[in-house]
Amino acid sequence: QVRVVQSGGGWVQAGGSLRLSCSASGAIFRISAMAWYRREPGKQRDLIARIVRGGTTTYADSVKGRFTIIGDKADAIDELDVQMTSLKPEDTAVYYCDAQEGDYTVGWGQGTQVIVSS
Fold it and tell me: How much is the mean pLDDT over the chain?
């Protein structure tokens, strides 16, 4: 079993920065990728960034150039931070960290609220 714990987030004015952290424990040998998602009020959960073991990263177009994910040690993925800069009000959402084995989620975080005011 994989346990995922998130930290960070909060409130910031537009143009500001925040960092979210995510840490996995337990059966981390199962993890081949980790990802950050977000859910805006009334909408489905959307992928914003993902890293696969080996370092390949994927970003949603909406966050490219503004968000950077930091993770992937040489031998495992068990931590994944996301540095968010130039934040916009439309980035307001609950952010979730997932630990994945292939395309399947094996652990997920509790969710972290990010509020960006204009």
Answer: 93
For residue 44, the 8-state DSSP code is -
Residue 76 CB-half CA count within 13 A: 11
3-state DSSP assignment of residue 117: strand
The CB density around residue 65, as the number of other CB atoms within 10 Å, is 9
Could you count the other beta carbons within 10 Å of the beta carbon of residue 87? Answer: 22
What is the number of other CB atoms lying within 10 angstroms of the CB of residue 32? 17
Q: Tell me if residue 46 falls in helix, strand or coil.
A: strand
Residue 40 CA to its chain's centroid (Å): 14
Q: Which structure tokens are listed for 27? A: 């059966």
% of the chain with per-residue pLDDT over 70: 97
pLDDT in tens, 51-103: 998 888 999 999 999 999 988 665 678 899 999 999 999 999 999 999 999 98
